[in-house]
Amino acid sequence: MTKPTVAVWKFASCDGCQLTLLDCEDELLDFSAAVSIAYFLEASSAVRPGPYDISLVEGSITTPQDAERIRDIRAQSRKLVTIGACATAGGIQALRNFGDVAEFASVVYASPQYIDTLATSTPISAHVPVDFELRGCPIDRRQLLEVITALLAGRKPAIPDTSVCTECKRRGLTCVMVAHGTPCLGPVTHAGCGALCPAHSRGCYGCFGPMTGANVPALAVQLRACGMSEGALGRVFATFNAAAPGFAEGTRGEPQE
Amino acid sequence: MSHRSRELAVSGLTRVEGEGALRVIVRDGRVERAELRIYEPPRFFEAFLRGRAYTEPPDITSRICGICPVAYQTSACNAIEQVCGAQLDPPLADLRRLLYCGEWISSHALHIYLLHAPDFLGYPDATAFAGDHRAVVERGLELKKTGNAVLELIGGRAIHPVNVRLGGFYSVPARSDLAPLAERLRVALDLALDTVRWAAGFDFPDLELTCDLLALHEPGRYPIERGDVRSASGLFFTPAEFPAHVTEEQVPHSTALHATLNGRRYLAGPLARYSLNSGSLSPVAREAAAEAGLSAQCRNPFRSILVRGVEIVYAVEEALRIIDGYQRPDRPAVEVTPRAGTGHGVSEAPRGLLYHRYELDADGLIRSATIIPPTSQSQAAIEDDLRRLVEANLDRDDASLTALCEQAIRNHDPCISCSAHFLTLTVQRR
Questions:
Q1: Helix and strand tally (H, E) in chain B?
Q2: Model confidence at B388, in pLDDT bands (50, 70, 90)?
Q3: Residue B427 pLDDT exceeds 70
């Protein structure tokens, strides 16, 4: 039997989610022996043509060329998994969706007419069907291994879609919001990090994006009660998952179509 | 040998962080064009930082680069703390340096073992090399893991740490929490020394940098998380004077922002850092450098792999020194109260000097931001390497010359993800 082939692709992003694969130091060598890594530019000069059994996709779509490229990748991939907030929700660069990209370009570039970019940053699922979306900015190493293992075994990944609160309780942490009045997005944020911020006496800042059925208006009441200003409330959801349905409503203004 | 016209091109550079391409055009034995093209789309960080709160840049700008998030967090903190007149308590400043040591260890180990060494050993990647020499690659992975352990303990996680804030941290470890980390670092010190000895046996092509070098400098110690700015040509200035010396401009017929130092090209990064500060290394790191054949300065970019190895030795020792003297700080962070003004922050990212500037209003909202990452500073110097290497090796066939060019780019560990978020680069020269 031939080994399953894995490809890793990058769109607009910081490289952190594909780096997570290289951060699996204990598993990396066995993993690369068990599968055939056919395309992973950050790690290897050996590039093989598709089709691929599993494509891991990092980054969001922000240029017309990338909108084409993701369709080619989808056509060559048996399973396509998005890794991280950029690929799954558009990333922090989706803040342009709430502003004016031409004005943004003029702030960074003296001659913005040379910049070829779309008005929006969109998740991969806005362009092609996606088999699984892994959350996080960045993704969690253990969850990445679980998703790959599950796909290779032909089963559904065991990735809970509950809130960070459930992980916080399981760790036996004291609630930072109830006990200390620290604003925390844990009640509406997708689980996966293991309640990292509360474990460091910090409120969750939502880097895994909205959980299924996130009740943002209800949390907003509690955040105000913690002393959060209206300005801060407008910014707190406008970060790495600003354009994700669930958080976008809390983000300043409405996304442009 | 006559070469009327040759074109070397690589459309997708491998073993670099981010996506770029290279193109060299040779006509009549002269390099007509040498381009390191960056085709990553810009993400406009400087634009959407406007209107954000002064507390947000450490979290937001860390997302520019997954390989060196601590560098972004630290330069951002330095800049904003400067505006607000905040000074870290000495134990908090030590913890910040310890966290940064973790990033140096992890990032340098990644570059040496997974990205750069395969060039010297004739393998397409580290996993193929591991097929023949598993123990060597495992040594690199163990070093990288130790760096990540420092990042995880102090920062909460290795990529985009959650525990960093203006003025310090959200929580600080107890002295006893650091003991197991010290154990691992003592093992890592031997692995780091073995790394330098191993890399010293590589075959290094000839190449000598002719441009100026720019790095931070601190009296008495090797610069990591702060310092003033120094050049090989004798300039010495504060972070606030950075914009007076370093300017960025968009080149005609391209989408490039090019940084120049008083109008000239220059290099930032390990070679610059080492050449300007090797006297401040620890005795063990200095000895490792000397054993590997490095003198007080190193201007051969192929030997940067040795300098990174020496810097891992130093970072491991420095981490051990900080842990040894560690007393839990009385408070996890000093208060940072916003005030109107402009602040400039610098630190030495693994790839070189990273500059941030923020202008705040009286409410602590950001009015404007400028970020100059190391790769955009070194861009012109990297292209100059390509030009001179190709001219000196015209007798090689295209495949071997192209491979040499790719290796020459990897010498500088360019972080295209970082630079591309400010610029899309195409360089054209007559």
A1: 14, 14
A2: very high
A3: no
Same domain, A148 and A181: no
Q: Cβ of A115 under 8 Å from any chain B Cβ?
A: yes
The answer, yes or no, to whether residue A107 has pLDDT greater than 90, is no
- A22 contacts on B by Cβ (under 8 Å): 110, 114
CATH architecture for the domain at B5-420: Orthogonal Bundle (1.10)
Chain A, 234-253: which have a CB under 8 Å from a chain B CB?
235, 239-240
Domain with A51 in it: what CATH number?
3.40.50.700
Mutate to test the interface with A, among B60, B99, B138, B159 (most CBs of A within 10 A): B159
- Its sign, for the CA torsion B179, B180, B181, B182, is positive
Is A91 found in the same domain as A12? yes
Mean pLDDT across chain A, nearest whole number?
92
Residue at a domain's end among A106, A134, A153: A153
Asked if residue A11 and residue A63 are part of one domain, the reply reads yes
Q: Where does residue B147 rank: exposed (0-12), middle (13-18), buried (19+ CB within 10 A)?
A: buried
CB contact under 8 A, A42 and B15: yes
Q: B69 contacts in A (CB within 8 Å)? A: 16
Q: Is residue A112 located within the same domain as residue A220?
A: no
Do A193 and A127 have their domain in common? no
| Model pTM score | 0.95
Q: Report pLDDT for A251.
A: 66
Give chain B's mean pLDDT. Answer: 91
* Chain A from 20 to 39: CB within 8 A of any B CB: 20, 22-23, 25-26, 28-29, 32-33, 37
B14/A47 Cβ within 8 A: yes
Helix axes B90-109, B69-84, angle to 10 degrees: 150
Count the domains in chain A: 2
CB atoms inside a 10 Å sphere around CB B241: 14
The conformation of residue B218, written as its DSSP 8-state character, comes to B
